[in-house]
Amino acid sequence: MKSRVLKFSVVYAAAMAIALILFCIGSVKDEAIAGMLMKGGNFLSTACEAVGKFPLYIAVAFGCSILHYHAEGKSAVWHRRLLKLIYIAGGVLSFTLMMTDIFDMLLSHKLLSYAASFFTGIGLYTLLCFYTERLDKDRLLRYKKWAIAVIAAGAAIVLITAICKLAWGRPRPYEVASGAYMIDSAAVYSPWYKISRQGGSSFFSGHSACVMGMFAFTPLLIADGRKRLTVIIYAAISAVIALIVILSRLLAGAHYLSDVSVGVMVSATAMYVSSVAFFGPKGLDIDADGKLNRYL
């Protein structure tokens, strides 16, 4: 257990070191780097914008479906129904948020986009529950602690992202370049350390934070006893996909370098803290008398 936490710590420290270096560079050269990298929208940037948030939302929805399955074992009817309602709401909400970017591109009216995302979310979560029910009981028991950890991390990431976007109001690079009209004037560049309140949503990058959810599935490979080479290959593929999404956000002029680096740091920190809290030496047990089985 201690060696596993140590490995998590090493990976987390490496990711934070790289992101922190990029953040420091961005803090000084954000405007210049954005002007140099911004190429406008293309197929890659549009595709990454549409599906870049998928990893985290799928991980959270899968976690909800796992806990939904375990809720069947509760003896009290009110407890079972309450837990099912919570997990269904969490799974559907996760898929709804995941699909919003796609339907925003396809539909002109925001309300229609939300409605389409919601009903699609219901369908996707239903299909996911069918898949989860077909997994063997031993595997689902091993996955339970992971499910709680990933839901906790995902909720923290989404909440922090939303709060920062609303509080900072930093205009996106393409808005500044085009002089787009914001709340009461044309968009002007604002460094990350100044709250501009122009009504923008550049700081920090939700796509950069959510695409890091690719790494959230790594513990499942370890729990299933996959070979070390398999885990390494999956981690390498996840890193490549994350870099592609992050770079696409920079090239599209949707974010500054500091935006994407903070997104990575927030996501990595949330997942690391959650991993240590649940998988560390003092993590909660999943035995029959443990708190996880008793309440969740």
Textual characterization of the structure:
- The two termini are 23 Å apart.
- 74% of the residues lie in helices and 0% in strands.
- With 296 residues, the protein is an all-alpha fold.
- The protein has twelve helices and no strands.
- The model has no long low-confidence stretch (mean pLDDT 90).
- Helix 1 (2-37) runs antiparallel to helix 11, helix 3 (54-70) crosses helix 5 and helix 3 packs across helix 6 (137-168).
- It has one domain (2-295).
Quickly list its features:
single chain, 296 residues, mainly alpha, 12 helices, 74% helix, globular
Largest sheet, described in full?
Answer: none
Q: Which overall shape is indicated by the principal axes computed on the Cα atoms?
A: globular
Mean pLDDT: 90
Provide the low-confidence segments as ranges: none
Distance between the first and last residues' Cα? 23 Å
Please render the helix and strand layout as text.
Layout: H1 2-37, H2 43-51, H3 54-70, H4 77-106, H5 110-133, H6 137-168, H7 173-178, H8 206-211, H9 218-223, H10 228-251, H11 257-279, H12 291-295
Helix pairs in contact: 1-11, 2-10, 3-4, 3-5, 3-6, 4-5, 6-11
Kindly summarize this structure in a few lines.
The chain has 296 residues and is mostly helical. It is 74% helix and 0% strand.
